C-alpha cells in the first residue's frame, strides 16, 4: 500500500452501506421522521424552559443544555445520513469527515458531563435541601454548563488534531458515518500518542465523572431508605427520568465502544448499523418525552401550549 499523509487523503469511503434496492426510500423516510421528531421535541422543551420564568432553576437549566446538545448531535449526523442513504457512492471529504467526528464526539462527551452534573444537582436537592439554594444557584449552574461544554470541546479538538496528523494507509471506514477510532486504525505511523491521550482522558475525566454519579446516587438511596415518605416520593419523581436517561445513554455508549474495539463481523450488518446509531438517535428522541412526561412543571406547561389552557 502507498503511504499517504492525512492531508493527502481527500476523501473517506464509508463501507458499511449495502444495496437495499427501493427499500432505501423507506429507510430514508424512517430516518427523516426520527430527525423531525427529535427537532420538534427538543425545540419545544427548550422554548418552554427559556420562556417560562418559573422554570429558570438549576435543574431546568441543565435540562435545557441537555436538549441543546441533543439538537447539535443529531444535526451533525442525520442530514449527512439522509444524503448518504440516497447516494450510490458513499464517500465523504476529509474535512467534512473530521467535522462530523467533532460533532458526534462533542455530543457524546457533553451528554456524559451533563448527566454527571445533573446527578450532583439531584444529590444536593435531596440530601441537602436546606442548603440547596445557596450551593446551587443559577449563576453556579450557568458556570457548570459552560464547563460541561468547554472541556468536551477542548478534548475533542485535541483528539482530532492528533488524528489529523497521522499518516494513513487507507481511506475506508467500515461504518455509516465518520468515527475517530476507525480513522486511527488506518494509520501507518505510530499511534502511541493518540492511545496514551485517550487512555489518560478515560482514566481521569471519565472515571471521575462515573465516581461522581455513583457517589451521588448512593447518597440519594441512603436518604430514600432512611427518610420520610415525602422524601422518597421527591427522589423518585426527580431521579427516575435522569436514571432512565443515564442508562439509555450508557447502553448506546457501551455498544459503540465494544464495536470500535472488537471484531463484530459475527453480528448481522443491519443490527450493527442500528446499534451504532442508537447513541445519537434514541437518547435525543426519548429524553424530551421522559422529562416532559415525568416532571410536573414541564408537563403542565406543555399541555397548556399544545392543547390550550386547562
TrEMBL record:
InterPro entries named in the record: GPCR1_Superfamily_Member (IPR052921), GPCR_Rhodpsn (IPR000276), GPCR_Rhodpsn_7TM (IPR017452), Olfact_rcpt (IPR000725)
Keywords, comma-separated and alphabetical: Cell membrane, Disulfide bond, G-protein coupled receptor, Glycoprotein, Membrane, Olfaction, Receptor, Sensory transduction, Transducer, Transmembrane, Transmembrane helix
Domain G-protein coupled receptors family 1 profile: 41-291
GO cellular component: plasma membrane
UniProt membrane topology term: Multi-pass membrane protein
Parts of the chain that traverse the membrane: 25-48, 60-86, 98-120, 141-162, 199-218, 239-258, 270-293
Gene3D superfamilies per the UniProt record, alphabetical: Rhodopsin 7-helix transmembrane proteins
Cellular localization per UniProt: Cell membrane
GO molecular function per UniProt: G protein-coupled receptor activity; odorant binding; olfactory receptor activity
Main location: membrane
PANTHER family: G_PROTEIN_RECEP_F1_2 DOMAIN-CONTAINING PROTEIN (PTHR26451), OLFACTORY RECEPTOR (PTHR26451:SF885)
Protein name listed in UniProt: Olfactory receptor 4S1-like
Organism: Gymnodraco acuticeps (Antarctic dragonfish)
Gene, per the UniProt record: LOC117532536
Amino acid at each position: 500500500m502507498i503511504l499517504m499523509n492525512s492531508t493527502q487523503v481527500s476523501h473517506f469511503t464509508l463501507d458499511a452501506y449495502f444495496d437495499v434496492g427501493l427499500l432505501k426510500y423507506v429507510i430514508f423516510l424512517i430516518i427523516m421522521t426520527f430527525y423531525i421528531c427529535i427537532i420538534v421535541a427538543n425545540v419545544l422543551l427548550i422554548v418552554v424552559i427559556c420562556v417560562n420564568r418559573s422554570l429558570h432553576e438549576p435543574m431546568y437549566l441543565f435540562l435545557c443544555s441537555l436538549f441543546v446538545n441533543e439538537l447539535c448531535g443529531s444535526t451533525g449526523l442525520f442530514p449527512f445520513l439522509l444524503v448518504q442513504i440516497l447516494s450510490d457512492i458513499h464517500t465523504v471529504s476529509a474535512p467534512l469527515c473530521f467535522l462530523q467526528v467533532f460533532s458526534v464526539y462533542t455530543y457524546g462527551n457533553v451528554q456524559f458531563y451533563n448527566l454527571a452534573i445533573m446527578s450532583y444537582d439531584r444529590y444536593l436537592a435531596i440530601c441537602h435541601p436546606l442548603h440547596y439554594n445557596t450551593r446551587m444557584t443559577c449563576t453556579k449552574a450557568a458556570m457548570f454548563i459552560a464547563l460541561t461544554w468547554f472541556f468536551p470541546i477542548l478534548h475533542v479538538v485535541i483528539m482530532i488534531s492528533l488524528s489529523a496528523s497521522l499518516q494513513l494507509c487507507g481511506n475506508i471506514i467500515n461504518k455509516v458515518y465518520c468515527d475517530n477510532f476507525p480513522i486511527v486504525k488506518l494509520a501507518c505511523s505510530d499511534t502511541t500518542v493518540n492511545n496514551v491521550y485517550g487512555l489518560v482522558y478515560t482514566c481521569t475525566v471519565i472515571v471521575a465523572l462515573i465516581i461522581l454519579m455513583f457517589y451521588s446516587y448512593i447518597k440519594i438511596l441512603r436518604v430514600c431508605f432512611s427518610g420520610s415518605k415525602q422524601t422518597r416520593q421527591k427522589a423518585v419523581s426527580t431521579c427516575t427520568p435522569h436514571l432512565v436517561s443515564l442508562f439509555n445513554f450508557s447502553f448506546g455508549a457501551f455498544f459503540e465502544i465494544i464495536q470500535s474495539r472488537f471484531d463484530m463481523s459475527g453480528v448481522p450488518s443491519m443490527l450493527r448499523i442500528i446499534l451504532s446509531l442508537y447513541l445519537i438517535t434514541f437518547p435525543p428522541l426519548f429524553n424530551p418525552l421522559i422529562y416532559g412526561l415525568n416532571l410536573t412543571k414541564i408537563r403542565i406547561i406543555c399541555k397548556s401550549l399544545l392543547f390550550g389552557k386547562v
